[in-house]
Amino acid sequence: MKPCRLILGAVALAVPWIASAAPSDSTFAVRPVTLVVPFTAGSGIDIIARTIAPRLSERLKQPVVVDNKAGASGNIGADQVAKSPADGYTLMVTVNTFTITPALYKSLPYDPVKDFAPIARMTIGNLALAINPSAVPVSSFDELVAYVRARPGQLNYGSPGKGTPQHLAMEILKNHLKLDIVHVPYKGAAGASTDLMSGQIQMMVLPVHTALPLAATGKVRILGVSGQKRSELAPDVASFGELGLESLDIDMYYWLAAPAGTPAAIVDELNRHAAAIIGLPDVRETLLKQGMVPTSSSPGELSEMIARDVARWKAFIAENGIVAD
């Protein structure tokens, strides 16, 4: 774990965010707010939550407590939030794997669209397509496509596991470009990254901030980064949009949600707070260091995005026979 993650986590746990005597910016908050993280401490979602919690506390003039409820690919924490009172005091930070799980599990204890009130998108995590340059002697994305097409079924790629965003992103690339590459699923990203550097696997999709240090060793080469525009983290690498892959839409994105039925006035207030917090220079710097580009959205825009992704992942996963590990 990076030192900055340890520091963030330690500070968030050790410092009690006590409401000040100043007037509150909130029209509803009169007691502590719980920010549920449906994954483990130290994860990207956890870092976002612990970065915004003190700032949200300052604005609400109430303590904001981060509560990690990990398990079942985020389903345990999400279910807790779905069944919580719709009063603004229980919120959730999650990632767009939330839109993938309905297609991977036969049943969920909640409905990912109907049981939540999306508040605001907060960050985007770009994904990088990386190769081992010794195993795949190409220097550009177009060269890679030609190289793979000349060797159908002979090359492989790794992922942290079946059904992960990295796995699905590569399958979308394969389908879009009509490429025959063999999937090698791992139990987590660490083993896959190690084997990429050694040449046991020839390529993989991974978060851009994870790919950059690997590329610095010379053992990995980044050929493209997801998104329409170049990533702030990798401005020298062509975006998928530049490469003619405008419609793939495989970025990871993180957002804030409340239980369904939360009054619109509370949702709108929290949306304003989230946008203001994400715009703070120190918050932006912290998130960028973790590979996440701050962004924002209206509740309506986010609702449409989630509903669209739930539908498209269900269709894509069914069509390609993808199952979770």
Q: How many individual β-strands?
A: 11
Order of SSEs, N→C? HEHEHEHEEHEHEHEHEEHHEH
Detail the poorly predicted runs: 1-23
Strand-pairing-aware structural class: alpha/beta
> CATH top level of the largest domain?
Alpha Beta
Shape: globular
Measured as a percent range, the helix fraction is 25-40%
Q: Which sequence of strands runs across the widest sheet?
A: 2-1-3-10-4-11
What is the domain tally?
2
Mean pLDDT: 90
The radius of gyration computed from the alpha-carbon positions, rounded to a whole number of angstroms, is 20 Å
CATH homologous superfamily classification of the largest domain: Bordetella uptake gene, domain 1
Biggest beta sheet summary = 6 strands, mixed
Query: What is the oligomeric state here?
Result: single chain
User: Which fold name corresponds to the CATH topology of the largest domain?
Assistant: D-Maltodextrin-Binding Protein, domain 2
First CA to last CA: what distance? Answer: 25 Å
